Amino acid sequence: MSPSTNDLELRRQVQALTDIENIKQLAARYYRCLDTANMTEMRELMTEDVTTDFHGGSYHVQLEGRDAYLEMIASVFNAEFIGHHNVHHPEIELVSETEAKATWYLADIAINLRTMRNTYGTALRRDRYRKVEGQWKIRHAGYSRILEVEEEVKPMNLTAHYLGLHGRKVP
């Protein structure tokens, strides 16, 4: 007996919801890996041909390829840096069975301990995804700032500093 139209529609809807949840989990893993500079795990979250387009108040970063992206992240998220990123309010659209796009609202803090400068702000994060061998991966990562504030950081007593222990050491 072949599945009814209702059964097929229900299966399609369940698959769509599963794909959307998997993309949400992918984003959660990405930001955890970002703030902990876990380049090994982050490598698995992106396609080899990933692209970036980050527009900030004082910068515009465009990169092509996973290796270039990971090198940039490892250089910035080093032992003299603190990062804190949250994304929320996802608007995820499944374009096809293997392509999706999303807009996320990003709020972040970045503290450079070498220059004692803090940047905090918000942005609209616009990403694209590709399903590869059954797994969703980031194909494009981009954002445009809504708000960006840079200020001097006063001396502080850090009682925990993960990247200080695990981040790339800088000369």
Features:
6-stranded mixed beta sheet; alpha+beta; 171 residues; Nuclear Transport Factor 2, Chain: A
Description:
The chain has four helices and six strands; from the N terminus they run ααββαββββα. It is elongated. The model has no long low-confidence stretch (mean pLDDT 95). It has 171 residues and is an alpha+beta fold. The protein has one domain (5-166): Nuclear Transport Factor 2, Chain: A, CATH 3.10.450. Strands 2-1-6-5-4-3 form a six-stranded mixed beta sheet. It has helices spanning 5-35, 39-43, 66-76, 162-166, and strands spanning 46-55, 60-64, 81-94, 99-112, 117-132, 135-152. It is 30% helix and 45% strand.
Structure described in brief:
The protein is 30% helix and 45% strand. The protein has helices spanning 5-35, 39-43, 66-76, 162-166, and strands spanning 46-55, 60-64, 81-94, 99-112, 117-132, 135-152. It is elongated.
Helical residue percent band: 25-40%
Shape: elongated
Say how many strands there are.
6
Query: Please, what is the oligomeric state?
Result: single chain
How many alpha or pi helices?
4
CATH topology: Nuclear Transport Factor 2, Chain: A
The CATH architecture is Roll
State the domain count.
Answer: 1
Protein topology:
Blueprint: H1 5-35, H2 39-43, E1 46-55, E2 60-64, H3 66-76, E3 81-94, E4 99-112, E5 117-132, E6 135-152, H4 162-166
Parallel strand pairs: 1-6
Antiparallel strand pairs: 1-2, 3-4, 4-5, 5-6
